[in-house]
Each structure stands twice: as structure tokens, then as C-alpha cells.
Amino acid sequence: MSYQLIINDEQLADYCSKIENSSAIALDTEFVRTRTFYPHLGLLQIFNGKHAALIDPIAINDWKDFLIILNNPKIEKYFHSCSEDLEVFLRYFGIVPTSIIDSQILASFLDNPLSCGYANLVKKYLGVELDKSETRTDWLKRPLTERQCQYAINDVLYLFPLINILKSQLSANNYLQAAYQECQMAVMRKCEVMDPKEAYLNIKNNWQLKGKSLGQLYKLANWRYKLAKEQDIALNFVIHEEVLFKIARYLPTSLAELDKLGMKGKEIRLYGQTILTILSEPIPDIPPILKVSSYPNYKYITDKLKQAAKELAKQTRLNPDLLLSRRLINQYVKWRASKSGDKPEILIGWRKDLFEKYCFDIDDA
User: Per residue in 256-271, is it b (16+ CB within 10 Å) or e — as a string?
Assistant: First the structure.
């Protein structure tokens, strides 16, 4: 199928007028993110079932009409594995499209692997073998080749019929609304904004640190996260997480000691003195981090929920990994211990009807 390459504002406005009354559009992005904090958008693909287009973001200044379409809740937005695409939209447009439907999530309700790739789904449901040769291409380099463009447009040309097939099958077995809810929750998680003051909570093995070392990790992780965002550098290309942890644990007092702990020469030149200054500043009193497996009755609750997921998988014919994940278990355990904050995901939405009884049994035990 032919497509339009949009390289100026007038072409984009004209294209938007053609698709503004669509019931759905398929969307995808191509970006580069090797050593940067943010994804750098190189190409945007769109298809409404009739009109296909590649939008060159480097050439566009006026996105007004396009953003109106993204914000229109009456137009469903089809994606495959939308997580990184949403980062792109948040970064470049400050919004997340409304009414998102993710083919990867829909497919997971049909007993496909949770991370099933787009090409595998297209082959399974449409019988088409897609070319994967341009996966590692530089999407910021111009001009784009015809092969690159065809590879990119295929990501939306087949997404449109794929999602329609998935929707039809899910509707037939009464899981379509549950799949929609799962899409909404995935979008909500992606929209959560990280507070730099909580960056230390994402450092591996943070629970091993106590007292002064934990306070220093809090300060160092906060500083690293802010710097990475401001200078658009991937976190581990500022200072690797393992080295940051060692600095907090061993509390060096000189550049030579930073070198011994694994900081690279360039990192020491750029950030060494700053880190020593941070370490010399007042240390906040940070409450100890409780390893999730140390929460009361963690093993008992985990075993019970896993057994529940096995039983429910047989009853519902849903993938047990979709029903329950380590993230969902840990979320429930932490909520149960505090009984504060938002309810865990196994007690809201489509999972609530399935797991609520088992959670009551856990409470009664």
C-alpha cells in the first residue's frame, strides 16, 4: 500500500483533515536512545485504515491539528507495546494520546506471551512475514531510504487489521473490556512522574544500606537523576548504578578513593569533586528500606497468590503470567502491610472479581 511522506506543516494539516473523523488510527514511533535520558524522535507513522503516512518530525513546526487528533477520545489509538512510544509523546508533545489500545496487551489475553513481538503476531494472525532488517537503523539520519520507510510504515499498516482481529476474538470470549482496562492501567503507570527524591528507591540492593550510607545514597541518586534529565544523559552514563551504590556504602573522601570504587577517569574529572562535596553535606535521616521479601508473611502470601493464579488460569484459560506477576505480588504485600495508599491492581478492575476471594482467605488465615 502507498503512503505519504509528510515533510512540512501544510502537508501535515492536510493529512490531519483526512483522518480527523476516523474511528481509529494506528500509531508508531521510530527513535534513537543509546546514551540519552530521553528518546530522540526520528519518525512517526500513522494509518487510519485508508490513508497511511510517515511524518518527519525534524521538518515539522506546527503540530496543532495532529495534537487535536491525539486528544480526541472518540478516536481509538492503536499501538504495539506502547510504553516507549508514550515516553516520546510526553517528551515531544507534553501529552499522552487518549483511548489507547495496545496489541501486545490484547494478545496476552489470547494466551500469547506477555511480551510477544509485533512481527510474531503479524505472522500468526495475518500470515505475513515482516522484514526486520532495519530494526537497528539510525532514524535521525537523513535522507531516509525507501527500505527504511517501508519498514516503518509496515508497523502501522498491519497493526490496524491485527488489532481488529484481536478485538473480535476477545469480544467472542468476553475478555475485551478486561483487555481495555489493562491497557488503561499500563498507560497510567507510564504517566507516573518520578520524583528525584525517590530515585534512591530504584537503586538495586538499596535495602542493604542503613543510616549514613542510606542517607548518602538518597542524596547521590537525587543528584544523578536531576543531572541526567537536565543534560539528557542516560543514568548509567552519568555514573553506573553499581558504582553509585559503592560510593554510598564506603563513603570515600578523595578522588583516588572514587577511582578505586570504579569511577572512570572522565567521570571523576566531570563529577568527582561534586560527589565529594555532596558526601560532605548534611546527611538526611532516611527510614530503613524493608526488603519486600522481609514483609510479614511474604512467603505465605506469595505461595497463596501463585496457587490462586494457577487455579484461575485453568478456570479462565488466561495466561497465569498475565493474571499475576512478581510486581503485582509485591504491590499487594506492601499495601497489605500498610493498608494505605491506592489499592493494589489485583483488587481493582478485572482482576478484583478473580482474586478478591483469595485475598479474603489470606486475611482470615
Answer: eebeebebeeebbeeb
